[in-house]
Automatic annotation (TrEMBL):
Gene3D superfamilies: 3.40.50.1460
Region (Disordered): 270-302
Pfam families, alphabetized: Peptidase_C14
Matching InterPro entries: Caspase-like_dom_sf (IPR029030), Pept_C14_caspase (IPR011600)
Protein name stated in the entry: Caspase domain-containing protein
Occurrences of domain Peptidase C14 caspase (ranges): 10-251
Organism of derivation: Streptomyces monticola
NCBIfam families named among the record's database cross-references: caspase_w_EACC1
Source taxon at top rank: Bacteria
Length: 678
């Protein structure tokens, strides 16, 4: 095991800028949220264990001088590792110099109100001269400029010198000298994007895209890796996820291969406090108590892992597309139930008597598909030894893998085999031998779609499930298992008919309390309640709704929180219409799309409910945006407008884009998919 940097001799400065005064720089609350979350992870002993007094978190209310002063103070105190992180807007000037935008930054004149990266680099290098490792992480547009690289190739000595502000012969050795590296010291710069690319905050995401992936890797760890993981491995994991998603490709710029020698603890491997120093310590005993030797998993005679869901199946995992899956069922079954008779005979002949089964369901998120989530069925087989497991795994490489049972139905703590035409739908299967275990996973979309365009999503889900399940999840106690929110239950098919839909017709079940649009603006629900359908719009609209079986409408009002630059906040009026079945909803979606401007506008909170606004002239002349969307048997409308009823005279080109993103985000945040069953 490679030692992690000494927490007592290391320092970290994390900068997250979320508020900006220039109208061209949108608010970015995800940036300070990411900085705060990273600080918490760095303090966690299961990752690094930095003392709280060794971490400085800087928010929007700061200046260039204050940032540089904080970095200087941290650098002077660092003898092992210095980490500097920045998230916010990035700017560049005509000379292709990078500027880190602070709250008062001027887009037209980056030299005003922004922190020149060159100054930050110089303070890190000169004040941190005693630190063995100096790491800079930049999550902002054009951040790749900091590395001086134009591609993904390894940096040359000239490029190293440019990024670090040192002479080209720094370190006293040329790049091609064999064995010239000295990993006792070194600098590295990790960036979220190439020099000419933007960085993004996904719609509704808590953190910027690059930071979010970094947080996920640190939080969940890397299954199958060692007890510590190098910065190189962590960065590659993040880069590969973003690359497959088509996002800007992160850049790495390292001196003396520092990213390969700088390690943090791997949360996917059990962690416990190091034993106190003793005269005659017994390392083997300590390791067995806190972190079982992976070699013990090779034989049933040495493997102490309980054959149980909580020991072998993670409660959640996130695939390389940033989609989270939660375990909604898990239990033990006889191997007789694991597949076709030929497969069962092979399993029994190799000593398999029981199979652990699990069901994972795609959870709501910025990259998820809430209407038709992906389901992953997992089976874990335990064999007497690793040789037998490898033999069975080779058998499953043929057609036998398609004759394994698909598990899907939740029932108590267990699950039941699925019924449905899975052979006629698109699905992906992955399996692997891991020590004495064979793990198999099959992914399908819950609507059993036969659509080749969903193959990348199915493939990614099954692969990540196989890699995440196994004995590495067993931690031996509950100290490392924090409580998690209950997963969203699979209710997709039930939403198609009123006779099977169990979603309560209440505000809490159908309307989110808060949501954030793609511009990072948060909206809060001010009011929400069911109303009679005769108040949903004009007489002709009401007549049509009632004739199609709609007797009630769920109404909600959302108000923009902390509108940018003192502008009047935007308001979103939402209506959710339930119909007897999906076919009726499809027809009404088309009708309401044409009649949308004759729908009621809800705005005035009164207790737990609210009242419709009379359709006066001022409402029809103001800037507004209305979207109609169907979710199974529901039709949802969202109307966004500014509370000052600003006229649509084209004087402010930012008004309509703000309203569009607000209405779209409201539609994503409302509907039966948000109901969690509690």
């Amino acid at each position: 095991m490679v030692a992690i940097p000494d927490p007592g001799k290391s320092r970290a400065v994390l900068i997250g800028i979320g508020d900006y005064t220039h109208p061209a720089l949108s608010a970015m609350p995800a940036a300070p949220a990411g900085a705060q979350h990273l600080a918490g992870l760095l303090r966690d002993p299961s990752i690094w264990g930095l003392p709280e007094e060794h971490i400085t978190v800087i928010g929007s209310t700061t200046s260039v001088e204050q940032v540089l002063g904080a970095v200087r103070d941290a650098a002077l105190g660092a003898q092992d590792t210095l980490l500097v992180y920045f998230a916010g807007h990035g700017l560049r000037d005509r000379d292709e110099q990078l500027y880190l935008a602070l709250a008062a930054a001027d887009v037209d004149y980056p030299q005003v109100g922004a922190l020149p990266y060159g100054q930050l680099r110089d303070v890190v290098r000169r004040s941190g001269y005693r630190a063995r490792h100096r790491v800079t992480v930049l999550d902002c547009c054009y951040s790749g400029i900091a590395g001086g690289m134009s591609g993904t190739a390894a940096p040359t000595r000239t490029e190293l010198a440019r990024a670090l502000g040192e002479s080209e012969d720094a370190g006293g050795a040329s790049d091609d000298q064999e064995g010239a590296e000295d990993h006792r010291y070194g600098d590295c710069v990790l960036t979220s994007a190439p020099p000419t690319s933007l960085s993004f905050v996904p719609q509704g995401a808590r953190f910027p895209e690059f930071t979010g992936e970094l947080i996920d890797v640190l939080e969940t760890g890397i299954p199958g890796a060692d007890v510590t993981v190098s910065l190189e491995t962590t960065w590659r994991r993040v880069r590969d996820r973003l690359r497959r998603r088509g996002s800007p490709e992160p850049q790495q710029f390292a001196q003396n291969a520092v990213t390969r020698h700088l390690h943090l603890r791997n949360r996917a491997v059990p962690f416990g406090p190091e034993p106190e120093a003793k005269a005659e310590p017994d390392p083997s005993t300590q390791q067995a108590a806190e972190a079982p030797d992976p070699y013990s998993w090779n034989s049933s005679g040495t493997d102490q892992t309980p054959f149980a869901a909580d020991a072998l199946l993670p409660r959640r995992f996130t695939n390389d597309r940033g989609i989270e899956f939660a375990r909604v069922a898990g239990g033990l079954h006889s191997c007789v139930d694991a597949g076709g008779m030929d497969v069962v005979a092979e399993l029994a002949g190799r000593g398999c008597l029981r199979v652990l089964t699990g069901v994972y369901l795609e959870q709501p998120g910025p990259y998820a598909t809430p209407e038709n989530p992906v389901l992953v069925s997992v089976q874990v087989f335990a064999f007497p030894d690793a040789v037998t497991a490898n033999d069975m795994n080779n058998l499953l490489s043929g057609d036998a893998r398609w004759r394994l049972t698909v598990w899907c139905t939740q029932s108590g703590v267990g699950n039941n085999p699925c019924s449905g035409d899975f052979d006629g739908s698109r699905s992906f299967e992955h399996h692997r031998a891991f020590h004495r275990y064979v793990i198999a996973a099959r992914s399908v979309r819950t609507d059993l779609a036969d659509d080749t365009t969903i193959d990348p999503w199915l493939n990614s889900a099954a692969h990540e499930a196989v890699m995440s399940c196994g004995p590495q999840n067993h931690r031996g106690d509950a100290r490392r298992t924090p409580p998690l929110p209950e997963p969203v239950a699979w209710r997709g098919p039930s939403w198609d008919s009123s006779s099977s839909d169990l979603t309560p017709f209440t505000a809490e079940a159908l309307l989110s309390r808060r949501f954030t649009d793609s511009k990072g603006i948060e909206f809060a629900r001010l009011a929400g309640a069911p109303q009679p359908c005769d108040q949903a719009g004009a007489v002709d609209v009401v007549t049509k709704l009632i004739g199609r079986g709609c007797l009630r409408v769920m109404t909600g009002v959302f108000l923009e929180q902390l509108a940018p630059h003192g502008a009047p906040p935007a308001l979103v009026s939402v209506q959710i219409f339930p119909f007897p079945d999906t076919a009726t909803a499809v027809d009404m979606e088309s009708y309401l799309g044409e009649a949308r401007w004759r729908l009621a506008i809800w705005h005035a909170p009164t207790g737990d409910g609210h009242t419709p606004r009379a359709a006066g002239v001022e409402w029809h002349q103001c800037s507004r945006w209305l979207i109609v969307r169907r979710r199974h048997r529901y039709v949802i409308t969202a109307l966004a407008l500014r509370t000052d009823l600003a006229l649509d005279d084209g004087s402010d080109p930012q008004v309509v884009p703000r309203l569009i993103t607000a209405a779209e985000a409201a539609l994503d945040a409302c509907g039966p998919h948000i109901y969690r069953g509690d």
